[in-house]
Design brief:
Length: 278
């Protein structure tokens, strides 16, 4: 479909010696012509240099707009300014402003004294101090800490009103959650461009890890895929790709144009999905 707005997400390599391979992965992904590629940020900010380095490669070597994820829960204002300055130096001008989860090393005292309480505080700070384009996260099945979807949406509105006009969603497997979420967000007055987060599940094991990290519901259709193909890696890979393709085609049929693929740094799987939706 011509009105597809495709973006991809990658994570930086853990070790310095893995950078050449990460660059090769990005070279392959760049051939899919995404509108932007976002780069995750290690919990607590321990690996911010790697995020900056990969975001720079995407922006400057591949000439694709890059979005650097940035979490604030374990960072001071000065830490954030330091990362922002590193990003500026390498011409990266887009940030996905996140609160992040509480790092395990933070004591109660440190956590309670943190300088940024929510992502909205980071958005407000970055708006005041920088001219970066700001993205935010959103949760079609509600963020796990929010007492209700209504409260979550109220805070999402505060976040977008503070200055982040583009939202990338948590991954989901059941499109109905996303459709209901869009409707409620609109009613709540959230004004933003939405990108639906889609993660292909290509092994049975991956589903368990993904669900425990994201809390996303597993619809019967996906559970059936795992039950049928889970023991056969090649069939499971293909079935997982087909599931992601049909999920995206259904989103497109419902008028959703922003698709953010969690690439898991797997260019072949990502390319097969893109071939199936374009
Ligand atoms: P927030 O927007 O601050 O929301 C967190 C909770 O606080 C919600 O329940 C919200 O309703 C509530 N809340 C907000 N404002 C208020 C208020 N004023 N009063 C009371 N409650 C309030 N994590 C990483 O560590 N690295 C990454 O690279 C990363 N990438 C991500 C990419 C995407 C697209 C998404 C969706 C998430 C990503 N995460 C990442 C995970 C994210 O850090 C966690 O989900 C975190 O728990 C919430 O971050 P947030 O920015 O959505 O928080």
């Amino acid at each position: 479909m011509s009105n597809l707005h495709l973006s991809l997400e990658v994570f930086p390599p853990k070790k310095e010696e893995d950078f050449p391979n990460a660059h090769a992965v990005l070279d392959s992904l760049s051939k899919l012509n995404p509108e932007f590629i976002s780069v995750t940020y290690g919990a607590g900010g321990s690996n911010s240099k790697k995020t900056v380095e990969i975001a720079s490669y995407i922006q400057n070597t591949l000439n694709i707009p890059s979005v650097a994820h940035l979490t604030c829960v374990g960072n001071t204002k000065q830490d954030i300014l330091n990362v922002v300055n590193e990003l500026k130096k390498v011409n990266v001008s887009r940030i996905l402003a996140l609160r992040g989860d509480r790092p395990s090393y933070m004591t109660d005292e440190q956590f309670n004294a943190r300088e940024f309480t929510y992502a909205t505080d980071l958005v407000t700070f970055l708006k005041e101090k920088t001219d970066f384009t700001l993205f935010g996260g959103c949760y079609p099945e509600k963020h796990f800490e929010a007492p209700s979807m209504e409260e979550d949406l109220q805070h999402l509105k505060e976040k977008t009103d503070a200055g982040c006009g583009i939202l990338i969603s948590q991954l989901f497997f059941d499109n109905d959650f996303f459709y209901r979420f869009l409707e409620k967000a609109q009613k709540a007055g959230v004004k933003a461009d939405f990108h639906a987060g889609i993660m292909p599940i290509t092994t049975a094991k991956q589903l368990g890890t993904t669900v425990s990290l994201s809390g996303s519901s597993v619809p019967k259709k996906l559970a059936d895929v795992i039950a049928t193909y889970g023991d056969n890696p090649e069939d499971m890979r293909k079935a997982g790709i087909d599931f992601a393709i049909s999920q995206i085609l259904d989103l497109q049929a419902h008028g959703v144009t922003g698709i953010h693929l969690y690439s898991m740094n797997k260019p072949k799987v990502t390319a097969e999905i893109v071939a199936g939706i374009r």
